[in-house]
Amino acid sequence: MRQPIPSPYPAIREDFPFLKAYPKLAYLDNAATTQKPQVVLDALASYYQAGNANIHRGIYSLAAKATQAYETARDKVQTWLGAAHREEIIFTKGTTEAINMVAFSYLGSRLQAGEEVLISEMEHHANLIPWQQLCIQKKAKLQVIPMREDGTLDWALFPSLLTEKTRLLALAHISNTLGTIHPIEQAIQQAHAKGIPVLIDGAQSAAHAVPNLQDLNADFYTFSGHKLYGPTGIGVLYGKKEHLEAMQPYLYGGDMIRKVSLQETTFAPLPNKLEAGTPHIAGAVGLGAALDYLQALDKSAVQTYLAALTQYAREQVGQVEGLTIYGPTQDTANVFSFGLEGVHPHDLATMLDSYEVAIRAGQHCTQPLLEKLGVPATARVSFGLYNRPEEVDQLVQALREIKAFFA
Amino acid sequence: MKPDPKALYHPLILQHSNQPFHYEKWAEAPVILEAYNPVCGDQFKIFGQVENGQFTDLRFHGYGCAVSKASSSLLVSLLHGKSMAEAEAICQHFFSVMKSGQLGDLSPEFAAFEALAAARHFPGRESCATLPWDSMKEYLSLP
User: Fold this and answer.
1) What angle do CA A335, A337, A343 make, to 5 degrees?
2) Do A344 and B43 touch (CB under 8 A)?
3) Of A284, A245, A242, nearest to A267 (Cα)?
4) Is A229:A255 a contact under the CB 8 Å cutoff?
5) Cβ separation of B5 and A344 shorter than 8 Å?
6) A346 and chain B: CB distance < 8 Å anywhere?
7) Of B14, B40, B125, the CB nearest to A377
8) Which of B39, B63, B122 sits opposite A376 (nearest CB)?
9) Distance in angstroms (rounded) separating the CA atoms of residues A367 and A191
């Protein structure tokens, strides 16, 4: 008999139509994307049904209402992140676009040949390739904090990688593959001591481990709405006001100008300067609804529950014969990767699908990390606030049967 | 209704996956084909020697799922010793069974093609079955 792991919100699955549509499914791929509560779906529908108008330009009342809905969503993001100013919140398509904006519109005009950008070996491709390509364009050097065998970064080496040539440090808060929580507070302090700005990729932390950005003092922080129970296609770039003001626009066009003539343009102040064109208004409204939903929950109770659930999963999954859990065992979040001897992760995922268990298998957009780990692919499970210990049991039972099938 | 994975992990597939045919590295092979799927990381090399228009030797090595490994093993075992014209015909048989899902009037030696064709019914797995055949098709310059 397992110890009970009581959810602080026993009826929460009722809030998610997707979970009701697939009552037998154990959805354990929340690091890829989360399901959406009814209130988010309602917000999207109600915006399109009764609120749709373009923002920042119409003189009629519906346009003003749409503008207000969009700008209210910005306020909700500001509150969620603890940002000092509302105009420090820029809506983007997601984390990927947000990081590209910082790479090409902030660092792009500053980085000189021979200078350096520092990232880690564990980054998602979204926090690797923009910097890599920028460095190639500028003949700059991409420096990398190596991963140690235990799935943590080599922090002993870190100070020596912060050099007088380093122009930016870009680091994930939580590894999307191993669940490693990086000590970003210390990293930021050390980088700042040398005058180096820091971008934190918050894709895996924004939902259940969101930092207060004024306490954290990160220069940039990025996340995606769809990993936070919100819609796809909407995300956020947070940047300190002085950095965003110094940034070139990433896109040029409507809604980002103050005065235009045929030969020159004066740009609008923040945040509009960085939000050219009609944005994903409905997405922002849906993201706002997701944040309202999360704000109504007791954050620390949810975190405690997810930590207990993940710990239970690590113990149970780890007991399956021939199974290896990769990465660190301490300071990890609600996601981990594993391998089962004799069964390729893709065969595992196909078989688990027939047992109504949805997991991710592959390289998780972290090819350099897997290369270092010495495995070509892993299976990954990740938990959301609606997951239950019974789903872990369903996974473990399936793993045992699959292991026997391939033996 | 989800398809039964036992259709995909048919005994013919598991046998090739567990006891692959000519599974060894051959760095000096005159012909080396790469079969790489960047989405999942499956990566096999097919090593070959062609003399007088015939595959006088074929081997393979690499890493991948049971389906891509079995499919590679099957390719090597079926094409080993065959002429280019025969190899082309076998490749065409493979792709026609992958398309129709039926062995039709083909010889029973191609029965495993039918099992591999089951991959079409599993999300994201068809490319596992076709991985080595796509490389061979390219090598043989087939359309």
Assistant:
1) 145
2) no
3) A245
4) no
5) no
6) yes
7) B40
8) B63
9) 26
Q: Positive or negative CA dihedral for B104, B106, B111, B112?
A: negative
| Other C-beta atoms lying within 10 Å of the C-beta of residue A274 | 24
Tell me the C-alpha distance between A74 and A274, whole Å.
14
Active site residue A365: yes
> Which residues does residue A357 pair with via DSSP β-bridges, in sequence order?
A26
Residue of B nearest to A351 (CA): B5
Rounded Cα distance between A353 and A351, Å, is 5
Classify A148 in phi/psi space as left (phi over 0), alpha (psi -120 to 50) or beta.
beta
CB contact under 8 A, B41 and A344: no
* The pLDDT of residue A155 is above 80: yes
CA dihedral B86, B92, B96, B98 (to 10 degrees): 100
CB contact under 8 A, B65 and A345: yes
* Chain A residues with beta carbon closer than 8 angstroms to that of B63: 376
- Name the DSSP letter for residue A105: I
Classify A142 in phi/psi space as left (phi over 0), alpha (psi -120 to 50) or beta.
beta
Sign of CA dihedral A23, A24, A30, A33: negative
Structural contact between residues A187 and A158, judged by C-beta atoms closer than 8 angstroms: yes
Q: If you measure CA to CA, which chain B residue comes closest to A377?
A: B41
Give the pLDDT score at B16: 96
Q: Does residue A407 carry a pLDDT above 90?
A: no
**A-chain residues near B41 (CB < 8 A):** 362-363, 367, 370, 376-377
**A-proximal residues of B, 58-87, CB under 8 Å:** 63-67, 69
- For residue B64, give the amino acid letter: G
Nearest to A27 by CA among A393, A360, A358: A358
Does the beta carbon of A351 lie under 8 angstroms from any beta carbon of chain B? Answer: yes
Catalytically annotated residue among A365, A368, A375, A400: A365
Beta strands A116-120 and A166-172, pairing class: parallel
Dist CA A144 CA A118 (whole Å): 6
Q: Cα Rg for chain A, rounded, in angstroms?
A: 22
Nearest to B4 among A345, A354, A367 (CB): A354
pLDDT of residue A331: 95
- Contact check, Cβ <8 Å, A361/B40: yes
pLDDT tens, position by position, B49-80: 999 999 999 999 999 999 999 999 999 999 99
Q: Across chain A, how many H-helices and E-strands are there?
A: 14, 15
Is the pLDDT at B1 greater than 70, yes or no?
no
